[in-house]
Write a structure and sequence with these properties.
The protein is mainly alpha-helical. It folds into three domains: 63 residues; 93 residues, Orthogonal Bundle (DNA polymerase, domain 1), CATH 1.10.150; 140 residues, hpI Integrase, Chain A. The protein is built from 14 helices and eight strands. Strand 2 and strand 3 form a beta hairpin. Helix 6 packs across helix 10. The radius of gyration is 28 Å and the shape is elongated.
Length: 380
């Protein structure tokens, strides 16, 4: 095979038959410059084994023979990712998703591995990158960054910018929540909170937070809810959209978080009753929102939602949880009272039941005790 192979920077003693220092293999070959007609040497490397370097060499020589060879560009990881997000991914995703992915590149990827050449990034460097991120961020956040990188590097392989995707060799942090403790309210705390809001807040706030605790809707889904999505006759609410922020503007996105997020939820009679009362009092607004902003009559900003929620939590004297904690509280209450996990999954809009079971694993031991007790009562 044309070209030569070498292991660069090996620090192992000469008498050692096998390299254990992690030195990488490189392949050096000749190409003809199409502009000058002169031959010049090129080298690619960063391969873990000689076999990997030989595979790359075979591919290069094949492309040189059939005229499809494209010279690898010496782009850094940061340069490539910015170009990929701006010119490729931007056309495929919603504006808020594009902004989030761009923030991943600027805030996380560039500071850690952005200066490394695209073709020389190693699995070891990636693993360290994941470990460093995991010290400051959740496993889910690191997973999302890893998903972006894996997708971008798969595209780099298809574009002949690199010969292999090193991210496919590294395991991303698990997003399992089995050992994560979720803060939720007891039924007594829920009653205490709702009683306080009913006595001190405007009726729309009471209705909104009552709906949150009895439907499991996400914050964006509550804010984006329109009266056309509420069937007070059948006591159903349908989730069709969510409120998102992109380019510093708040707007309604027709597709919620996932396809499974489009769902219909049966409401308790008490919640339906409050929605009927609020529908009569609700101000007319251009988007026909169930909970329009009291200041602008448009979409309620998520931070305004959170500020009101935090204020009521403090006033009610209940345990401090985030506004998303109402969703966790809804699910935990149902599971703890024997509602089938599959039903809870559908009401929450989770893509798989595994997500539901992993998220609310802390409820399962008590459910198993109740099941064993019921079995005992039936058989003995």
């Amino acid at each position: 095979m044309a070209g030569t192979f070498r292991r660069r920077g090996c620090k192992c003693p000469p008498e050692r038959k096998r390299c254990t220092c992690g030195a990488k293999w490189y392949y050096r070959y000749d190409i003809t410059d199409p502009k000058t007609g002169k031959r010049k040497q090129k080298e690619i490397g960063g391969f873990r084994t000689k076999e990997e370097a030989q595979d790359a060499a075979t591919r290069i020589q094949s492309e040189l023979l059939n005229g499809t060879y494209v010279e690898l560009k010496k782009k850094t990881v940061g340069e490539y990712l910015l170009d990929y997000v701006e010119n490729t991914l931007k056309q495929e995703v919603a504006p808020n998703t594009y902004e989030q992915r761009l923030a991943f590149v600027e805030n996380h990827i560039k500071p850690h591995i952005g200066a490394i050449l695209l073709a020389e990034l190693t699995p070891q460097q990636i693993q360290k990158f994941y470990n460093d991120l995991r010290e400051k961020h959740s496993a889910g956040h690191v997973q999302n960054i890893g998903n972006l990188l894996n997708k971008a590097f798969n595209q780099a392989v298809r574009w002949n910018l690199i010969f292999r995707n090193p991210f496919s060799l590294v395991r991303k942090p698990s997003t399992s929540r089995k050992n994560t403790k979720i803060k939720v309210w007891t039924t007594e705390e829920q009653k205490q909170f709702l009683n306080f809001v009913a006595g001190s807040g405007p009726h729309w706030c009471y209705t909104m937070f009552l709906l949150a605790l009895t439907s499991g809707l996400r914050k964006g889904e509550l804010i984006g809810l329109q009266w056309g999505d509420v069937n007070t006759k059948d006591g159903m609410v349908t989730v069709k959209r969510t409120a998102v922020i992109a380019n510093k503007e708040l707007y309604l996105k027709d597709m919620p978080k996932t396809e499974s997020s489009i769902r219909s939820i049966q409401l308790p009679p008490q919640t339906v009753k409050e929605l009927k009362k609020w529908k009569v009092a609700c101000p007319t607004n251009p988007l026909n929102l169930v909970f329009p902003s009291p200041k602008t009559n448009g979409i309620l900003y998520p931070n305004s939602f959170d500020k009101r929620f935090d204020s009521f939590v403090k006033g009610a004297g209940v345990a401090k949880i985030s506004s998303h904690g109402t969703r966790h509280t809804f699910a935990t209450t149902l599971l703890a009272n024997g509602v089938n996990a599959k039903v809870v999954q559908e009401m929450l809009g989770h893509a798989t039941i595994k997500t539901t079971l992993d998220t609310y694993a802390h409820v399962l031991p008590n459910m198993q005790k109740d099941a064993a007790k019921q079995l005992s009562e039936v058989l003995f």
